[in-house]
Amino acid sequence: MLQIYNTLSRQKEIFRPLHEGHVGMYVCGPTVYGDAHLGHARPAITFDLLYRYLQHLGYKVRYVRNITDVGHLEHDADEGEDKIAKKARLEQLEPMEVVQYFTNRYHRDMELLNVLPPSIEPHASGHIIEQIAFVQKIMDKGYAYVSNGSVYMDVEKYAKDYPYGKLSGRNLEDIVTETRELDGQQEKKHSFDFALWKKAAPEHIMHWPSPWSEGFPGWHMECSAMGTKYLGEQFDIHGGGMDLMFPHHEAEIAQSCAALGHDSVHYWMHNNMITIAGKKMGKSYNNFITLEQFFEGKHELLEQPFSPMTIRFFILQAHYRSTVDFSNDALVAAEKGLARLTEAYQRLMKLQASATSTVEIGNLRERCQEAMDDDLNSPIVISHLFDSARAINTVFDGKGTISEADLKELREVWKTYAMDILGLQLDGAQDAGAGMDAYKGAIDMLLNMRLEAKRNKDWATSDKIRNELTALGFTIKDTKDGFEWSL
269: closest CA among 331, 321, 309? Predict the structure, then answer.
């Protein structure tokens, strides 16, 4: 039975969905003002793993992953310039041009990483009406106040009725001590109050009418409003990176309890951070490497390009709640591990069955399921697959035999756990998503041109095509029937 770690209770709990056979899952998606980096890949892959496994278990999952395209400010959650608006101003674009450009690129990166698209992908800017209505509910309950056209959560008043800080384990006294004094906070009753709606400054280019001012919603409000709109007042799982636990998810809990009288979320799940030299990788630290830079190898910390599947395997090698420290050497090791796994799978698909088995495949299916049921323990699943690879290689090398029943079981388990659940592409696909056929066709076309050049004794053209493809990393083998190639 699936057990997941609930951040709220700080322990593993048996997963019991609120509605029989159906699961509602909300995950915080990207703020689309720049290219996705490795820190964005981890939550995407973590909750893709959960999404895939829940479906494997037979649940019908409504997976909502939002796009933040308004209200995420430069200095903290309440002050500074909107990050998308700033990008638009600097590049003389419409804000929605920035949003569309980076959303398209995010989708491209997710497709390359073999991350399944969510059921619904709502944009904050497309749900202003819902956010205004949610703010009004909090106002009506008496837990918010208007100041100079902005609306703030009255945290002190809220904390008298509900336990504020229960997700992150902080109490109000600690928060008071840690809260920075920033420009513009004189509007608030207390420095720890957070914005539900912000009045827009005259130069602010993203704003909407509301009962309180021409302005825009606070960053936290979008998830409360969109989560309840698409999943109901109570839903099963809310996920995101550990860095969102406070203040973002803590504020969400406060907003939901204030407006609805109860928390909306049954299970909170948080993946840990990607670090570099022990420090969180992210845009705020200016130490991030974009996914495109990984794929192309164009960064000073990278000695080579790394395929999207190498990135996915690198992330899945660690449990989602553990920290992963990036290094070029770690990625090289992941690349080699993935190559071994890929070779074993491709060998498995070529094996011929015998009357009996001399190799032991054991209870591989049960062990993989047990690992996944233990809070999505992907590294243990991978280790079990590597264990079974020894049997595969023994048979492939002619040093053992495998029965038809064992071969069928092994193939089914590898497809189910390695490909369908872990989402690894081990069948020869080159992480090119929908463009794979075009990619193969282009290489075949070039090599057919080379064959034609050889028939015409145009050795210069023949050698040029071969040498340039070889320089790009292709291995080309001439055969009596034409050619073979691999990357």
Answer: 321
DSSP 128-196: HHHHHHHHHHHHHTT-EEEETTEEEE-HHHHHHHS-TTTTTT--HHHHHHHPPP-TTGGGSSSTT--EE
433: pLDDT confidence band, cut at 50, 70 and 90?
very low
The fold of 276-421 is Isoleucyl-tRNA Synthetase; Domain 1 (1.10.730)
| Spatial distance between the Cα atoms of 124 and 130, rounded to a whole number of angstroms | 10
Please give the Cα distance from 99 to 83 (Å, whole number). Answer: 11
- Looking at CATH, the fold of the domain delimited by 18-271 is given as Rossmann fold (3.40.50)
For the chain, what are the domain ranges?
Answer: 18-271, 276-421, 434-486
Q: What is the rounded CA–CA span in Å between residue 81 and residue 204?
A: 8
What is the Cα–Cα distance from 200 to 220, expressed in whole angstroms? 17
> Pick from 487, 69, 102: which is nearest to 291 by CA?
102
What 3-state DSSP class applies to 209? coil
Q: What is the pLDDT of residue 441?
A: 79
Listed range (4-13, 89-98, 180-189, 298-307) with the worst mean pLDDT: 180-189
The pLDDT value recorded for residue 282 is 65
121 has pLDDT over 60: yes
Nearest to 195 by CA among 173, 174, 178, 210: 210
End-to-end CA distance of the chain: 41
343: which 2 tokens?
A: 């070779």
Segment 11-18 long-range contacts (CB within 8 Å, at least 24 positions apart): 12/374, 12/375, 13/267, 15/267, 17/59, 17/236, 18/234, 18/235, 18/236, 18/266
Q: Same fold for the domain at 18-271 and the one at 276-421?
A: no
pLDDT digits (tens, 9 = 90+) for 271-295: 999 988 777 776 666 678 999 999 9
- Residue 116: DSSP 8-state: P
Question: Residue 149 contacts by C-beta under 8 Å, 6 or more apart in sequence?
Answer: 199, 212, 213, 215
Q: Which residues contact 117 (CB under 8 A, 6 or more apart)?
A: 107, 110
pLDDT digit string, tens, across residues 455-472: 898 989 988 898 888 888
pLDDT greater than 60 at residue 259: yes
115: its two tokens: 């991350």
